[in-house]
Recover the amino acids of this structure.
């Protein structure tokens, strides 16, 4: 699979997207809960994804559906899973932060960056963070360690290093057993998809890991059944800051940066 190069390596494309997103924000065209709707005077309004795609349609003459997250890959060379992550956080951040979120998200991405490991690193962080990581949902130390071991292995996978199936199984099975002890979060159907990671290649893109829904990661992180609304908002704010950090740190291949 071809490595995606953010904004197709074109600074003008990033500048255009940021210009359009800022226009949408200033014109009150950003709105939660819908990819597209019509405001006063027939003005377009939409969510983070809707506004980004509307920008492509208007400026580049495209006819892309406003809810088509895959357009981030085909048009901007930003992995589709990150479009879902941007979308999920836009809907969950408080209203003030969410209105600036699309611009901050795109601004953080270096032109030409390889973003293939951002989601994997973010998922590992949701498990491992010392203050709000998912491991804290367990009181038993053995369960906590199982979650941390799994998170650390996911982080390792995001380094393009090879691994063996038995190494994967050694962390996967204890993690699933620990997860099953949290009745409200035992989504073993989602975890079954992790079996796709048990291939013996280098997993350079973590494309299979990306099939773990970002929103599932966010829901686990925010522990929706046990926290009040203000606490959840604070966690989503912290999560958004982590996403921006990971985006900004994404490497730009040497052949692109020259």
């Amino acid at each position: 699979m071809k490595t995606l190069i953010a904004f197709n390596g074109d600074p003008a494309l990033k500048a255009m997207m940021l210009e359009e997103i800022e226009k949408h924000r200033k014109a009150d065209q950003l709105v939660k809960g819908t990819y597209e709707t019509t405001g006063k005077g027939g003005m377009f309004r939409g969510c983070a994804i809707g506004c980004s795609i509307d920008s492509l349609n208007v400026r580049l003459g495209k006819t892309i559906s406003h809810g088509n997250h895959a357009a981030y890959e085909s048009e901007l060379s930003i992995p589709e899973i990150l479009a879902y992550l941007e979308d999920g956080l836009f809907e969950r951040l408080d209203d003030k932060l969410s209105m600036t979120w699309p611009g901050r998200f795109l601004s953080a991405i270096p032109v030409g960056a390889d973003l293939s490991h951002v989601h994997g690193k973010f998922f590992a962080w949701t498990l491992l963070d010392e203050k709000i990581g998912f491991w804290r949902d367990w009181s038993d130390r053995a369960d906590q360690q199982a979650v941390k071991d799994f998170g650390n292995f996911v982080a390792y996978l995001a380094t393009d290093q090879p691994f063996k199936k038995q190494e994967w199984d050694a962390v996967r099975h204890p993690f699933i057993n620990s997860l099953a002890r949290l009745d409200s979060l035992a989504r073993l159907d989602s975890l079954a998809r992790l079996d796709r990671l048990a291939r013996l290649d280098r997993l350079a893109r973590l494309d299979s890991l990306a099939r773990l829904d970002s929103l599932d990661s966010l829901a686990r992180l925010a522990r929706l059944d046990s926290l009040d609304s203000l606490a959840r908002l604070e966690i989503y704010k912290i999560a958004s800051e982590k996403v921006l950090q990971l985006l900004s740190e994404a490497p730009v291949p040497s052949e692109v940066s020259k």
Notes: The chain has two domains: 6-115, 118-225. The chain has a mean pLDDT of 81. The first strand starts at residue 37 and ends at 38. The chain is about 55% helix and 0% strand.
